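Hello again,

I reread your note about wanting to compare the complex against the isolated chains. To keep things tidy I'm splitting this into two emails, and this first one only covers the full assembly. Below are the input lines as submitted, including protein chains and any nucleic acid or small-molecule components. They are followed by the predicted structure of everything together. The single-chain runs will come separately.
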Amino acid sequence: MKKEIKFNLNGEAITLEVNPNEVLLEVLRDRLGAKSPKCGCDKGDCGTCTVMINGKTVRSCLVLAIEIDGQEVVTLEGLMDSGLTPLQKSFIEHNSFQCGFCAPGMILSATELLAKNQKPKREEIQEALSGNLCRCTGYTPIIDAITNLTK
Amino acid sequence: MENNFFGEYKVPIIHKFDYLKPKSIDEALTVLAQSKNPAILAGGTDLVDMIKENVVQPDVVVDIKGLDALNQIKFENDTLFIGAGVTFSDLIESKIIKEKYPVIFEIAKTVASVGIRNRATVVGNICSALPCMDSGPLLSAYDASVTIAGQKGTRNIPAAEWFIAPRKTALQKGELVTGVSLPYPKVKHAGCWIKLGRYTGEDLAQVNLLILAMADGTFRISFGAVAPVPVRAKKIEKLINGQAITPSLIEKAKQLIEEEIKPITDVRATKEYRMHMAKVMFERGMNAAISRLNGCGPEYGTSVI
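Full-complex prediction:
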């Protein structure tokens, strides 16, 4: 049943044997040590497990690890090769974290938005982050962090 | 096992299955015919969750993302073809959709959130066939057909015959939906999509409504999430087609909605609320669709609810 998959994780070539029933989120966290994606709802609603596959954000709790054979996966760790990104610094400046559980997903979703749209309107930011739930901040500091960066 | 934020233990998928990523439709059909209980995987946003919940227990998962022929959005012979691998994000970014079917852009923008839309497909949505799906009214209002490949050949099923019951479609074992075809209406037209949720973004529908207003004075009206399958409101269409759309006619049509739909009470809304809002949405949707037909009205993608 086990199959070998080859993929790119944060710039590193990975070869791994996986069972078809292993979920990408478990493999990233428990086997590859990428701890930024979190298990929140485990059914695609909360966005804490967000990672990028080929530049697009996905819910890693709803992807089978075996599906990413030949693909390029980026977790928040992968954006930080040269330290904190400007977006992360802006999150810190605006106190956009409290517990921090949603932050990796928020930052990846915002990164995807800014790659497509450098001057998003407030509504567009809200829409882009609507699949990432935050139970602490009330969202305002998160949206402020993104708008201030794009001013 | 992992202890999540809420202190629940998340158990990995225990059910065992095999995985195959066929390189051709024929190869996919052979596997589907030979396996006892195959599951077809496109985006996986429904399927992986259903496997986790043990609602589906496949012996083999057939991943169709490797079939390039299914990843196309084509407009040929006045018909739009959306392949089974096309995601909602693909639709939002498509030029053909923006130019010819802007209401599909409007629908796709209301489906869940970006991270789901990057994986989830229209065809997956109609194959899961949950009553609250957003693609049901689309197929029904455009008189679309579902293209199905099987070992005996290809067949096309009209949208009206595709949806049988919640989670039940006309797809038979061993078959694969390759895409959906939406004929371009022959006359100038405009549309309006309204999705009612508890909040904007990332919610399932309480009521869905798609209205197409045609320049010849006819309308196509389809409701979702208010009956086991999408409802094409034929009685209302019969009442208003070719008539001058006056406030009193709209009032009569709103009364007819009570005969057309059968909403239920569930965790998302009561049946009374759904019925009331279906009427409000109908009136606003008619106004918006007619305004758009006349070259004004809200921009596509702007919610009117």
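For quick reference: The interface with chain A takes residues 2, 4-5, 10, 12-19, 21, 41, 44-45, 48-49, 51-52, 61, 63, 65, 89, 109, 112-116, 118-119, 200-202 of chain B (CB under 8 Å).

B.
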